[in-house]
């Protein structure tokens, strides 16, 4: 490895659900490719269940996955 991080591809899944998401036709859940930043920043403008998953793909296979629930107040 020589001190360099291994190459991988990141993909993101942002899920919005709940009554307000349904009313606003903002149900989400598709998987999208990273834009080269290795991060994802979004804001929420309604209450409901939200979560974000990140997938690390290496050699065409899932190498790691992380999941976080996003609290809304």
Automatic annotation (TrEMBL):
InterPro entries: AGS_C. Residues 5-71 form the Adenylyl/Guanylyl and SMODS C-terminal sensor domain. It comes from the Bacteria. This is Adenylyl/Guanylyl and SMODS C-terminal sensor domain-containing protein. It comes from Corynebacterium marambiense.
